[in-house]
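Student: Hello, beginner here. Can you help me understand the protein record under this note? Any guidance would be welcome.
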Amino acid sequence: MVSKIKLEEVFSSRGATNVIRLLIKREEINVTALCRLTGLSHKQVEKYLKRLVNYGLVKEKRFGKIRIFALNNDNKYVSLLREFVKNWESQAFRQ
């Protein structure tokens, strides 16, 4: 069951925002890579991913013990997230 999306929880912290940004940039990524690239603990990354999966923004693929996460392009909010992050980052570079 997909939970109602709460914007303040999606962008609840710098760590959560970094996880989203990396998912947008990488298309698919595993937890270990997210931990390495964000500097967050496995537990923190898992918490953010679980929330995003519950919202239906992210989907998980399993290959044995390997878990790969990707944005769920079937969710109408994913394109909005992509556009928001793209616009935000392009504005940040201009300043």
In short: The chain has five helices and three strands. The beta strands are 28-30, 58-63, 66-71.
